[in-house]
Amino acid sequence: MLNVVRYAPEFPFPPYSYVSGQWPHPLRDPTGHSYGMIHAPVVLPDQSGWQRCREYCYAVDLWNAGYYWESHEQWEALWHAAGRHGPTADFFKGLIKLAAAGVKVREGRPEGVHRHLIRALQLFQQVFSQVAQKPDFALEERYWGIQWQELIQLQNTLTQSLHLLKLEHATKKQPVLRVWDVYFDLT
């Protein structure tokens, strides 16, 4: 694993990243890494205060480390907290789709990878078009700590790299596997 910055180091990583058929389901199986855990409701700050949202920071840490299913779960909680509609909710839904694409790589399902990546790009473009309508908007602005140009570039890189994915390696039973050499750099 690359040595990347942790944004929520107070939260430990689980012992494995869930992949269907390879590991116990984290929530439903008594041997799952998150079985029986109860999480407090998420309270979202304004996007400019993303550092205060420890759940968001942890979701980024999970994604960066290759815990795709777990980052999906974290971002889904944020999506619900955002009301499931509007630019912030759509942004989280795009991140959910990115994480789902990582899960599909681990499952060896290229059609699912492609479908989730395309949908993520659509959601990010939709959010961008809504946010970019502000009179003082600049392309260098960050949304939840991520620069717009970097987000679109990340999505394009992932989509273009579909043919380079070695699914036979990604589907081997490994506790954690980063399937792309891309990560979120929040500032």
Keywords:
187 residues, mainly alpha, Hyaluronidase domain-like, globular
Question: Could you please describe the fold and organization of this structure?
Answer:
By secondary structure, the chain is mainly alpha-helical. The protein has a domain at 47-170: TTHA0068-like (Hyaluronidase domain-like). Helix content is 46%, strand content 2%. The protein has 6 helices and 2 strands. It has a two-stranded antiparallel ribbon with strand order 1-2. α1 (54-65) packs antiparallel against α2, α2 runs antiparallel to α3 (87-107) and α4 packs antiparallel against α5. The two termini are 21 Å apart.
Morphology call: globular
By secondary-structure content and strand pairing, the structural class works out as mainly alpha
CATH topology value of one domain: Hyaluronidase domain-like
Strand order, biggest sheet? 1-2
Number of helices: 6
CATH superfamily of one domain: TTHA0068-like
Number of strands: 2
Low-confidence parts, pLDDT < 50 over ≥5 residues? Answer: none
Brief characterization of the structure:
The chain has 187 residues and is an all-alpha fold.
Which helices and strands occur, and which strands form pairs?
Elements: H1 54-65, H2 68-81, H3 87-107, H4 110-131, E1 142-143, E2 146-147, H5 148-160, H6 167-170
